[in-house]
């Protein structure tokens, strides 16, 4: 794989001082009502937002939520009661990859859906008399907040969208400008919070082409993940539950939309009987509505694992898509990755390439996935000592970042600044 490159890269902040350190001050902030709008595509947005929500609750603030898609059930499962709004999303082709044609077809009524979402958000903010609004990649939440004159912070790692396609390139080129429309909305935010490592280690750099005039209100807070610490005995106990006392534990996390997940899960199920028993394979399809478990050969398949973070901590290798949340968890917990990005998913492809570039992951294509190739990639990753060093360096960098507590401090500081101006 080559020498670990990340240890030689100069960071744009001192390791002893996180990128948001200038905000780390004791802020005397009155207790607020905060409304949070969450993107419901996959579980990455909502899982990181819940961490911020818990931090705000611990500081005495009251919360309300709106969400759609997979985020709704996740919020309910974690004790929140979201208002359900109209869903938006992207189209998926027969192979589980992103389809430009299907995306356009499914979003012909996007202006109507956005209007419905914005109306619902406006009602939520008004009904709860919210003092502050927090959006995780929800344009309608930002629009509603600004219409009502409320301060708003946006958590995002996709300032601009990447449209990748091998077919219908003319269609992609025609719609490229239209799909960048959300950037005009992000510009309206009072604060932009990026849940990623600071430059030049930023995983989502390809989707963060932030204009120069917006950079003064942009803060990199590092991975928004649960901070965990386990003793060797605790890790060994977890590994024992999955028959991994004397063999590598390989965790496969299949995330994304329902059909995206279905295609990759079925690929692994078809491979299960052929996979070597030299590894303990655990697969989760990240479906919070089911608790089914089955075992096929050396592969254990779970629809839902209640405490996935503990299992990530215990794993020797994590296999997943290229979403920022899972990559961030692996970096924060010091885990190697084998990434299988969703075909033609611009964000996942670029995230995966950056993770590989800084030495913490290997990337394989879904369409070429077979048992021999998969286990060869697993073996190479597990035996890669350069990757071990890169993972260690990046874990140390992540520990210096503020995460969810910094987001809560930023929200309080922004609210205080607004109240002083009024």
From TrEMBL:
Pfam families: Glyco_tran_28_C, Glyco_trans_1_3. InterPro entries: Glyco_trans_28_C (IPR007235). Residues 252-384 form the Glycosyl transferase family 28 C-terminal domain. One of its GO terms (molecular function) is hexosyltransferase activity. Signal peptide: none annotated. Belongs to the glycosyltransferase 28 family. This is Glycosyl transferase family 28 C-terminal domain-containing protein. The lineage of its organism: Archaea, Nitrososphaerota, Candidatus Caldarchaeales, Candidatus Caldarchaeaceae, Candidatus Caldarchaeum.
């Amino acid at each position: 794989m080559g020498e670990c490159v990340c240890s030689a890269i100069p960071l744009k902040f001192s390791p002893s001082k996180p990128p948001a350190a200038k905000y780390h001050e004791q802020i005397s902030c009155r207790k607020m009502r905060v409304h949070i709008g969450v993107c419901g595509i996959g579980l990455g947005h909502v899982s990181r937002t819940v961490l911020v929500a818990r931090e705000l609750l611990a500081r005495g603030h009251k919360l309300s939520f709106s969400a759609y898609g997979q985020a709704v059930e996740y919020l309910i499962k974690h004790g929140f009661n979201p208002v359900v709004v109209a869903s938006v999303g992207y189209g998926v082709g027969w192979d589980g990859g992103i389809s430009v044609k299907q995306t356009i077809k499914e979003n012909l009524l996007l202006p109507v859906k956005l209007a419905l979402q914005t109306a619902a958000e406006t009602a939520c903010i008004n009904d709860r008399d919210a003092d502050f609004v927090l959006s995780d990649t929800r344009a309608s939440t930002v629009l509603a907040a600004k219409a009502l004159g409320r301060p708003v912070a946006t958590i995002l790692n996709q300032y601009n969208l990447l449209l990748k396609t091998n077919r219908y390139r003319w269609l992609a080129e025609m719609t490229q400008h239209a799909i960048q429309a959300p950037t005009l909305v992000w510009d309206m935010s009072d604060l932009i919070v990026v849940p990623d490592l600071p430059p030049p280690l930023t995983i989502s750099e390809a989707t963060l082409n932030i204009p120069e005039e917006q950079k003064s209100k942009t803060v990199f807070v590092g991975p928004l993940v649960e901070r965990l610490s386990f003793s060797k005995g605790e890790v060994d106990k977890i590994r024992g539950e999955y028959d991994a006392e004397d063999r590598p534990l390989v965790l496969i996390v299949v995330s994304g939309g329902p059909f995206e997940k279905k295609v990759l899960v079925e690929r692994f199920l078809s491979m299960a009987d052929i996979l070597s028993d030299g590894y303990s394979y655990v697969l989760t399809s990240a479906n919070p509505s089911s608790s089914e478990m089955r075992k096929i050969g050396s592969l254990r398949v779970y629809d839902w694992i209640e405490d996935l973070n503990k299992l990530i901590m215990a794993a020797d290798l994590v296999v997943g898509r290229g979403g920022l949340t899972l990559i961030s968890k692996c970096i924060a917990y010091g885990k190697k990755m084998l990434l299988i990005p969703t075909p033609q998913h611009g964000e996942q492809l670029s995230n995966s390439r950056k993770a590989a570039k800084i030495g913490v992951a290997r990337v394989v294509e879904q369409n070429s996935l077979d048992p021999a190739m998969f286990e060869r990639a697993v073996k190479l990753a597990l035996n890669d000592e350069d990757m071990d060093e890169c993972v260690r360096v990046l874990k140390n960098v992540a520990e210096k970042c503020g995460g969810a507590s910094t987001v809560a401090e930023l929200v309080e500081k922004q609210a205080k600044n607004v109240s002083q101006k009024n």
